[in-house]
Amino acid sequence: MALTKRQKEFLDFLAGFLEKKGYSPSYEEIAEGLDLASLATVHKHVQALESKDYLKRGFNQSRSLEITRKYYDEERRHKQAPAPIGVPLLGRIAAGAPVEAIAGEDTLNFADFAGDPDTYALKVRGESMIEDHICDGDYVLIEKTVHVRNGDIVVALVDGYETTLKRFYNEGDSVRLQPANAAMKPILVPKKGVQVQGKLLAVLRKY
End-to-end alpha-carbon separation of the chain, Å? Predict the structure, then answer.
């Protein structure tokens, strides 16, 4: 079970206190250190962390909280993991009427895409999807999946030898692969002749 942000802060406080003092804090010291409203709130956190196997406590003993190995193992793995690749997400930019510029503090983390083994990239060739703003030379990020819905943009293998990026429509015994270009006709293929290899996650463009 994953830790909540507050539970992580609770464990980090305990670990820091133990390292500095050599003994566990009292419930009063925890409440004060974490600015918790009451001792009852401390008890709830302790019970939740016990149920997740992050804490042990001795009954009827003061200063008896003990952090389990599970916490320290996860901290070590986290420190060894490579830092996520991200850039600051500073807000929104208008492509129509101007909007007020407000700086934000979020981060766009590319590990959300790149860290998934079921994600891969393709370079687009051609202009069949230009009305969906997918242009020749763009890179598309694709999630490996066979589960798609009508209207999804998919990578489809047609007749076992040709792949294409199109919108997918199930039409009974056949599949319609619809381009986003009014100058091009849809591709109609018997359902058995189409193998979906993934669906679109994102489009990247270099200038």
Answer: 43
For residue 163, count other CB atoms closer than 10 A to its CB: 12
112-204 has the same fold as 5-80:
no
> What does the pLDDT look like over 152-178, one tens digit per residue?
999 999 988 888 999 999 999 999 999
Task: Give per-residue pLDDT as tens, 114-124.
Answer: 666 778 888 99
Catalytic positions are 128, 166
Question: Which CATH code of 1.10.490.10, 3.40.980.10, 2.10.109.10, 3.40.50.1820 fits the domain covering 112-204?
Answer: 2.10.109.10
Average model confidence (pLDDT) across the chain: 83
Of residues 84 and 156, more confidence is placed in 156
| CATH code of domain 5-80 | 1.10.10.10
Encoded amino acid at 64, one letter: S
Q: Where are the domains of the chain?
A: 5-80, 112-204
The rounded distance, in Å, linking the Cα atoms of 140 and 19 is 48
pLDDT at residue 84, rounded to an integer = 60
